[in-house]
């Protein structure tokens, strides 16, 4: 079974890019590791934001678009990717608004928990 624990974020980003490219054939794709914005140890690769522009989204509701992305990354979402923020646009939507929304600051309960690194380490053992 593939796992991204202990890998560098560039490896996880490359995997996400590969899977989304193979599945959705995007005309534009951005993958950002936003783990540093959350209460996780330095170098983590657990929180990502993706912008996917694909003609396969034509005529689909936002929830159906997100389901396609989630299905493509099913294995990663069940193992190493804790959070995935998705912007799924059609090429027409991208042409009219070629921007990536900003992520809000982390409000997670672990933000003030100074033992989070030990808990994450224990979870990997």
Would you write up a description of this structure?
The protein has helices at 9-24, 62-72, 74-77, 91-96, 116-124; strands at residues 28-33, 47-53, 83-89. Mean pLDDT is 78; it is low at 1-9. Strands 1-2-3 form a 3-stranded mixed β-sheet. The chain is globular. The chain has 125 residues and is an alpha+beta fold.
Describe how the helices and strands are arranged.
Elements: H1 9-24, E1 28-33, E2 47-53, H2 62-72, H3 74-77, E3 83-89, H4 91-96, H5 116-124
Parallel strand pairs: 2-3
Antiparallel strand pairs: 1-2
In short:
The chain is an alpha+beta fold. It has 5 helices and 3 strands, in the order αββααβαα. This is BolA-like protein 1.
The CATH topology of the domain at 29-98 and 115-125:
GMP Synthetase, Chain A, domain 3
- The secondary-structure element order is HEEHHEHH
DSSP summary, beta strand count: 3
Q: Widest sheet: strand order?
A: 1-2-3
Helix content: 25-40%
Biggest sheet details: 3 strands, mixed
How would you name the CATH homologous superfamily of the domain at 29-98 and 115-125? BolA-like
CATH class of the domain at 29-98 and 115-125: Alpha Beta
Average pLDDT, to the nearest integer?
78
Oligomer: single chain
User: Can you tell me the overall shape?
Assistant: globular
């Amino acid at each position: 079974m593939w796992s991204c624990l202990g890998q560098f974020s560039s490896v996880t980003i490359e995997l996400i890019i590969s899977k989304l490219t193979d599945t959705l054939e995007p005309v534009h794709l951005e993958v950002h590791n936003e783990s540093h914005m959350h209460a996780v140890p330095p170098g983590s690769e657990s929180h990502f934001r993706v912008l996917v522009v694909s003609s396969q989204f034509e005529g689909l509701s936002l929830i159906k678009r997100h389901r396609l992305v989630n299905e493509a990354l099913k294995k990663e979402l069940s193992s190493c990717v804790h959070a995935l923020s998705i912007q799924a646009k059609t090429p027409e939507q991208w042409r009219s608004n070629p921007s990536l929304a900003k992520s809000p600051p982390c409000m997670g309960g672990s933000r003030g928990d100074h033992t989070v690194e030990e808990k994450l380490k224990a979870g990997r053992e």
